[in-house]
Every structure is written in C-alpha cells, then in structure tokens.
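A brief tutorial aside. Many learners find it easier to grasp structure tokens once they have seen a single protein encoded end to end. The record that follows does exactly this for D-TA family PLP-dependent enzyme. Read the sequence first, then the structure, and try to relate runs of similar tokens to stretches of the chain.
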Amino acid sequence: MTLNPWYILQNESEADSPSLLIYKERVQQNILKMIAIAGSADRLYTHVKTNKMPEIVKMMLEAGISKFKCATIAEAEMAAIAGAKHLIIAHQLVGPKIERLVALCQKYPDVFFASLIDTEAVANDHNRVFEKYGLISNIFVDVNSGMDRSGHPLDDTIFSLYKHLYELSNLKCHGLHVYDGHLRTPDFETRKHEVETGFVDVQHFIESIEEAGLPKPIIIAGGTPTFTSHALHNEIYCSPGTCVLWDWGYGDKLPEQPFEYAALVLTRVISKPKKGIITIDMGHKAVAAENPIDKRIRFLNLENYEFFGQSEEHGVIQVSDWEGIKVGDVLYGVPYHVCPTVNLYDEAYVVENQSITDTWQVLGRKRKITV
C-alpha cells in the first residue's frame, strides 16, 4: 500500500477552505531542533510573532523554553495566558502603549515584562508613567547594527543614552537587543562572516559599558536568519521565531537550517473558467500578499503551474494538467512568509497522524485581548 504524502489529510472533507493547518508533530520536532542548535533551552528568547497561539507557547514551555519575545502587547498577553513568565516586547512603546504596558504589568504581576528603548525622550516618558503607578519599567536598549529599521545607531551618543537610563529611578536596564535580520545571504559561511563583522561595534559598546563599571548587559541578538551564527557564541541569547513553523522563504534562503514545514494553507479549486486556468479560494485574505505574486505560496501537490492572479477571495493559476483537475480538488500550499499568513486566521486546524484532531485559536493576532 502506498502511503499518502505527510501533508495529505485523511479527513480533509472536514476542513473548510481556505484554512490554516498546523502539523503538531512537526512543530514539536522544530522546537527540539531549535533547542539543539542553541545548545540549551535557556539560551532561547523564542519570538512568538510567528505562531501567536497559546498551545504552541505551551509546547515550548514543556520543552524547557522559558523566555520569549513578542511584537505586540496582545502577543505578550497571549504568551502570559499560556503560562510564560519572562517576556520582552521587541518594540519601543510610545503614546498610549506605555499605559497599556503598565496595565499588563498590573494584571500579570508574576510575569517579567520588558520593552525596548532607543531614545532618551521615550525613556523619560516610561519613567514618568511608571513612577505614577509605583512600578519599574524593565527595558533593553535597541541597537541598530545595520538593519536601519529601529534602534539607536552605534555612534558616540549611544553610551550617553545607556548611562542616562541608569539615572532614571523607575527604569531598569537589563541589556542590549541587537536585531540583524537584514543578513540573509544563503551561503552560511558568508552570512556568518557578515554577522560577526556587523557585531564588532556591538562588542566595542559592551566593553565601554563594562569599563564604566555598569552591570554586564544581557545580549539578545538576531532572529531566524542569523540564529545559526549567533548560536556559536555562548554569551549571546538567541531569538529565532519562524523556525517553529518554517516557511518556503527561509527554507530556500537558509539551507543549513534543518527545520520542517509545519504550517500549510489548505485551499480548494472552485472554478475552471477557461481551458488551462483554475481558480482557488485563496485570495489576499488567505496568504500573505506583501511579496510579488510568485513569492506567496508553493503548492506541494500541484506540478507545472503558474500562480499569476489574486484578489481578495480568489487565486488564479495556469496549469498544464487542466483536464485532470476537478472543481472541489484540495491543494496544500507552503506560505512564502508564514508569520503574516498565520495572522490572517482566527483559528487553525491541528493535524496529528494526518488527521484533524483539534482547532487552536490564533489569539495573538488580536490588537487587544484584555489590556
């Protein structure tokens, strides 16, 4: 008897479409591989922005991972609901978000929450708001090591910012956050050299902190692309995220990383409007559409095709085997970018032994849970 490929559901008639499928056994294997690369679970600040599900956070907690990064206050609350006790919101929170952070700290007083700072004025705002409530704002300095998306540049003013933080009564600085996600060269040795070269000025900054007699900073560095490079240096905490679910984009770009696809989009053929053309129910609302159309989805059970058209509810594909495809047929696709794809779904089907066994809420996709 020929076994179906790993991704084919035995009970696929129970799955509405389009839908998100989470293959639980593969998630578990990816978590274990992530820990093996880091050398220990304690070195990981796994980013939950990819999965956004309490059940997956619980799986990581059960595997020994105790520290997490988040992108939003809602993601932080989702992780706290799952039982996480050590969380960093990897953003500089401004405006009303400072009060929301206070509310989060008050609602979950046994959880360590921290956020990022790269500007003195924002540090002063945090200090003022947290002082009003009699609380301490835990922070990490966000360092711009070359990505130019956020963070303080590594110039001669960054030390004055760092020193200023120690002068504020209601702030506690724990260390540095250094994200170098722009380094994605496919060849590992080249990428590793780029990572280490980009980290030279960070090391100089760390030395200046220690020479000034300030506490030795915790260093949280990288994301998934540079995970395998930073993992080689024991003094650095690593914060991968995508590898828990994995996707086509990183799978092609990071060949040394051993992770497996654990999240797919299930879609159905809903029309054959013209010879050679099929239409599926997977539009912009079903798969991340921030990349060009040739970098959105890769179908595992379709050959010789071109995905060339997409609108809100429809995807249009040119196929070679038009006669062999029927309306109602199921296609399984790997997202090019899984993180924003997960964010499109309220819930996901959980797959075990090639059957749907449960549904999980994508709770962290909300802008607000309770806080």
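Self-check: Residues 247 and 338 are 6 Å apart (CA to CA). If you spotted this yourself, you are ready for the next section.
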